[in-house]
Amino acid sequence: xxxxxxxxxxxxxxxxxxxxxxxxxxxxxxxxxxxxxxxxxxxxxxxxxxxxxxxxxxxxxxxxxxxxxxxxxxxxxxxxxxxxxxxxxxxxxxxxxxxxxxxxxxxxxxxxxxxxxxxxxxxxxxxxxxxxxxxxxxxxxxxxxxxxxxxxxxxxxxxxxxxxxxxxxxxxxxxxxxxxxxxxxxxxxxxxxxxxxxxxxxxxxxxxxxxxxxxxxxxxxxxxxxxxxxxxxxxxxxxxxxxxxxxxxxxxxxxxxxxxxxxxxxxxxxxxxxxxxxxxxxxxxxxxxxxxxxxxxxxxxxxxxxxxxxxxxxxxxxxxxxxxxxxxxxxxxxxxxxxxxxxxxxxxxxxxxxxxxxxxxxxxxxxxxxxxxxxxxxxxxxxxxxxxxxxxxxxxxx
Length: 398
Fold this sequence. Notes:
The protein is an alpha/beta fold. It has helices at residues 12-27, 44-56, 75-81, 109-129, 135-143, 149-154, 165-172, 198-206, 209-228, 234-250, 257-272, 281-295, 309-335; strands at 2-6, 33-37, 61-65, 71-73, 85-88, 93-95, 146-148, 160-161, 192-194, 349-354, 357-360, 363-369, 380-387, 390-395. It has 13 helices and 14 strands. α1 packs antiparallel against α8 and α9 runs antiparallel to α10.
C-alpha cells in the first residue's frame, strides 16, 4: 500500500507529485494507493489533471480525508469523489465547491453560470460513476454546501468513516470498487508513506502568489535602483535573479499578464522620475499601476491563488516613500548654494605666504590687493573677488 501525503493546495507542483506517485504505484506493483487528503482547494486545471490520473490509474485509489480537522473542499471535493473508495476521518469536512473569483468575490453572472454548470456536471458525474449520491454536484457547487464526515456517510457521499489509517484498511478489505470492479485487499497491508521532496517543497513555496509578487517587486525595484545608480552591481544582480525566479513561477500559475505589464509600467514610471521634471506625477502613476498590477496579477482561481492586498499596498507605499524621499533630496540639492568652483572662495580669509601668493582654504592662489598695494608676507587678507585664476583681496587690517 502506497500512502501519498497531500496536505497542501491543489497546484501544478502537487499535481505532478500525485501523478508521479500514482505511476510509481503501478510500476512497482502496489495493491492500492491511498491519498491522505487535506486541502482547501486550488487551481481547477491542476484538479482536473489529478482527477484524470485517478480515473486512469491501474491501481485502486483510496482517498482518505484526514486527519481530524482536515478538509476536502473546493477542488479537493473533486479529487475525493474521483477515488475508487472514499473515506473520511471524524471531524473532517467535504464540499463547498462554488466557483469564486481570485479574491473570494462572486464571479460575473455569465462567467459564474458557465463555471457552475461545468463543475456541477463534473462532480455529479464523478459521484454517480462511483456509486455515490450525485446530489453533491448540485449542492456543493450551486449552493456551496459542506458536509461533516457523518453527514457525508448518511447522504451516501462516502463509503466509510475511519478513525485512522489501519482502521480504514481493515474496513476497506474485500470491497469491490465502482466502476472498475477491483476487489480491495488491504487488511494488514504494509504501508509505504511518501511526502513531497525538498525540491518540490521549494517549488511549492516559489509558486505561492505572495512570494511571486514579492520576488517580482524586488526584481523591479533592484533594476530601478541600478538605473538610478549605474555601477552599484548588487541591486541590479539581485533584481535580475528575483525577476527570473518570479517569471519561472509565473509560467505554471494562471497569471494575468495585464497585471504583470502594469507592474513593469510602474517600474518604468518610477525609474523615470529622477530624470523627468514631473513633480511627483510619475511616482503617483507608478504607485497606482503597481497596486493595480499586484491585484490583477493572477486570474480568478477559487480564492486560493491571490496576492494579499495588504502586501500589495505595503510594497506600493514603500515605493512611493522611496520616491518621495528621492524627490525631496533632489529639490534640496538644487536649492543649496554652490559649494564648488572658484566663486565659493569669495569672502574667505587667507594669509599672504609671499608677495603675490595667498593661502586660502588649503590652496595657494595668485593674488593682488584691491587697492593696488603690495601684499606683505604674513598679512591676513579677505577675498573680495576672483579674476580668472587670480584673487582680488583686501587687507583685514584695513
